[in-house]
Amino acid sequence: MNIPSHALALQTLMLQAADEVRGSVLFGESLDRAREAVVPFMVGEKFPCVYLEHPLIGDPFLDVTVLYGKIEPGFCIESDAAHGTEELID
């Protein structure tokens, strides 16, 4: 059995959440941007906690929060969105 990478597992979960008519209702136009932005944060040995936040009223969109537990030395996120966090992570 092949074990999917963290990035592939997250993408699969997000696509499953967007299946059928849920995609436009939950994510609006933000699903592809969220998938692209979050993939670089799927690093480390353990799958991080990923919170998807959708508004209860108004236009649909998506906020994503990624939380890590204990991280190993040398932990690095290869994303412009993480620029300047190296010292904090160390």
Protein model, in words:
The protein has 4 helices and 2 strands, in the order H-H-H-E-E-H. The chain is α+β, with helices and mostly antiparallel strands. Strands 1-2 form a two-stranded antiparallel ribbon. It starts with 5 loop residues before the first helix and ends with a helix.
Task: Note the topology.
Blueprint: H1 6-17, H2 22-27, H3 31-38, E1 49-53, E2 63-67, H4 86-89
Antiparallel strand pairs: 1-2
Total DSSP helices: 4
Helix content: 25-40%
Adjacency order of strands in the biggest sheet? 1-2
Element order, helices and strands? Answer: HHHEEH
The gyration radius over C-alpha positions equals 14 Å
Q: Spans with pLDDT under 50 lasting ≥5 residues?
A: none
Task: Provide the structure class.
Answer: alpha+beta
Termini, distance in Å?
35 Å
Chain-averaged pLDDT: 85
Note the main attributes of this structure.
90 residues; alpha+beta; two-stranded antiparallel ribbon; 4 helices; 33% helix
Would you kindly provide a brief summary of this structure?
With 90 residues, the protein is an alpha+beta fold. It is built from four helices and two strands. It is globular.
